[in-house]
What we know:
homodimer, Rossmann fold, 8 helices, 24% strand
Amino acid sequence: MKVLVVGANGQIGKHLVTFIQEKEGMEARAMIRKEEQASFFKELGAETALVDLEDDIDPIAKAAEGVDAVVFTAGSGPHTGKDKTIMIDLDGAVKTIEAAKKAGVKRFVMISSFDTRRKAIQEATESFAPYVAAKHYADEWLKDTDLEYTIIHPGMLTNDDGTGQVKIGQDLDIEKVPREDIARVIVSTLENDATIGKEFQVVGGNQSVTDAVKST
Amino acid sequence: MKVLVVGANGQIGKHLVTFIQEKEGMEARAMIRKEEQASFFKELGAETALVDLEDDIDPIAKAAEGVDAVVFTAGSGPHTGKDKTIMIDLDGAVKTIEAAKKAGVKRFVMISSFDTRRKAIQEATESFAPYVAAKHYADEWLKDTDLEYTIIHPGMLTNDDGTGQVKIGQDLDIEKVPREDIARVIVSTLENDATIGKEFQVVGGNQSVTDAVKST
């Protein structure tokens, strides 16, 4: 299985490409914005595709050609300018979805925010709400397609070492979760077709990633 | 015909409520954010509804109860903070659309931006692109509903006195158009059911508003 990782140079993305390259029968194509980001991925033996997510759909579709799945884990993050929130977290995500369709890739894994429902937008702080709204509309766009999607809603992301153990569910209380463990959840999701058409929250916990993903 | 004007206190909105109140058989309900904005509309004999567009769908739906049409002409404008672009131009618009559905109002007129197609997002300047993207997604959301919509794409808005004459079409060159004339186009659109399911651009021109709207 070849996987296009959009946002490969991000903190989840780097863990993800690393894990994919370690997996038998899986390989990654890292979509990156700058040539100088390539060496990290080349050292892992991964392919790279140089595309700016603010470009049009076609170059993204070209990067997606011949892969079996697309993972969207790009993000401006909640603390960048709000112009990037709409251009990357919403428009970049939608263009990636459309690119997957164009390239004939059916499987799509979206890394979303912990809660992107209407209520979460309304209850978010004024500075966080635009990010939640952007992720909401990206998720809605994906759910309205015929793609074989899974939407992963991580809790408060940390750079702590992963434990390989998480808690997965719906309507969880928000808790911390290492980015490294989210990357493991993504790999496990790609390996488990029962996750297709589903969305779930992930926080730190004490169930193995494999078992937790199976339980969705 | 009773019309809920969302964004009534805006520059187009004030002209629009004025024209609606002057029309035989038409009356406006002005949706406004602050109580002190009410006097302008009360003097015109229009109803008012006090709702913040950043609130949830329910209060907007309540404001839409019993009207025959909703006009969305609220806008953060292209030069406010990009947080407001997503919260008002996109999320405010979508909540208004959902509110119309909830209140059982079928007719919906959206005041969009001159060109909200994918190409326009890609070709916009970095500072303008988030606004175009927000309007793009609001328009897409509306077109995906069963509402009887019309999407109006005005050219460069000015505060010049209206002339009552415009040019309407698809793929026009962008030119100036007074906000007052856009308000006239909205009234004419509400009076003309042949505009349902259509979208068109409006710039300054030399055809009467009534004839131009008929030609869509």
